[in-house]
Amino acid sequence: MTTNEGSNPIRAIGLMSGTSLDGVDAAWVQTDGQTIKAFGPVTTVLYDEALRADLRRVLEMAPALALDDQGLRDVEKRLTREHALAVAVLGAAADVIGFHGQTILHAPEVHRTWQIGDAAMLSHFTRLPVVHDFRSADVVAGGQGAPLAPLFHAALAKNMEKPLLIVNIGGVANATWLGPEGEIMACDTGPGNGPLDDLAQKYLGQPYDKDGALAASGEVDLARLKTLLAHPFFVQPAPKSLDRLSFSGLIAQATKGLTPPDAAATLAAFICEAIAQTPWPTPPKQVLVAGGGRHNAILMAGLAARFAAPVLPVEAVGWNGDALEAQCFAFLAVRSLRKLPLSLPSTTGVNAPQTGGRLYGTIL
Q1: Residue 205 is assigned to a structural domain of this protein
Q2: Which pLDDT score, from 0 to 100, does residue 3 have?
């Protein structure tokens, strides 16, 4: 198969390791880069505790890390092996891999975004060509480099009633607004599961607040919620994006002295309010929620209370909320091969529709 075969579909495997740092999702998609022809198997490989801890350490140290830091290179190799394992577990024949890698630093204001992951090693292990480095071109061109899912969302929702809002609650939360005339707008809305995961790990020894149980047992501190929502990020116009740790200092200060349940309840309210107060041209007729946050009953109830439209998990329309981002990077890998835009001025703030991604290997 070559990249100049018009609209012939390509079999792609997408790999996504998100800001929750819990593992790598893999998903098979057949697409021409504009429409999805077929979905295939999906899988998740969870990281062991040692790798999760090392990824968190690298995340915190990233601003001061050198590219050739030996500890960083060791973590990158281990991360890449887990991605290769996910491809093996998936066990599906494919023509290309879309490899997002692990974001350890996202600072578009200084034209920098950093995803670790060794594309050459992954290609060697899997014997497949690899499209990687999806965000850099957008950031270099003046864009935010995130979110990159909106064009995939638009393809998925092509025949659905608009306006439609698709919310992804991962470590960071982001949303895509799709208008009735084909408009696509997007931005990060604020923190997602990240601070709740950190709280659950610290106080419960668990990687996340299962079913929102910790938050459900607490009370929202309205004064501290107001302090969190006063962050300058929320008055910035979209498009805009965040680093996983952008709010860490403020959250630590705002939750200091609270009981773990009250801190969790306040953070959950913060996540929901940040999503709900993000302005769009017209209110959505439906809100679809993807990512780990849709499993948190407190987050889902909080969103339902703040929107006039129905708030539903994406499974309600037949999508796989656990695999959506991996499917997205399979889709974007094919768009990259076809030299189609990965981002738009209305999704990342880039000056013009921007292609991106780099290919390691050869498409046969």
Answers
A1: yes
A2: 42
Same domain assignment for residues 171 and 91: no
Considering its fold, how many domains does the chain have in total? 2
**Helix boundaries (H) for the chain:** 49-61, 70-90, 119-126, 136-140, 150-156, 193-204, 213-216, 222-229, 248-255, 260-276, 297-306, 324-337, 345-348
Does residue 189 share a domain with residue 132? no
3-class state of residue 284 by DSSP: coil
- Please report, as a single letter, which amino acid is at residue 316: A
Closest CA to 41 of 55, 29, 23, 24: 29
Selection from 348, 98, 164 nearest residue 239 by Cα: 348
Using CA atoms, how far residue 358 sits from 133, 164, 203, 328, 339, in Å, is: 6, 31, 41, 16, 11
For 76-116, write each residue's pLDDT tens digit. Answer: 999 999 999 999 999 999 999 999 999 999 999 889 999 99
State yes or no: cis peptide before 313, omega within 30 of 0. no
Host domain of residue 336: 10-145+329-341+354-360
Q: What is the CATH number of the domain that holds 84?
A: 3.30.420.40
DSSP string, 27-93: EEEEE-SSSEEEEEEEEEEEPPHHHHHHHHHHHHHGGG--TT-HHHHHHHHHHHHHHHHHHHHH---
Does residue 197 contact residue 20 with C-beta atoms inside 8 Å? yes
Query: Given the DSSP bridges, would you call strands 358-360 and 130-132 parallel, antiparallel or unpaired?
Result: antiparallel
Is position 348 within any domain? no
Q: What is the pLDDT of residues 298-330, one digit of tens each?
A: 999 999 999 999 999 999 999 999 999 999 999
Task: Give the other-Cβ count within 10 Å of 252's Cβ.
Answer: 11
Same domain, 84 and 178: no
179 with 82, same domain: the answer is no
Q: What is the pTM of this model?
A: 0.94
Domain assignment of residue 204, yes or no: yes
Cα 288 from Cα 313, distance rounded (Å): 5
- CA 311 – CA 226 distance, rounded (Å): 24
> Contact, 261 vs 217, CB < 8 A?
yes
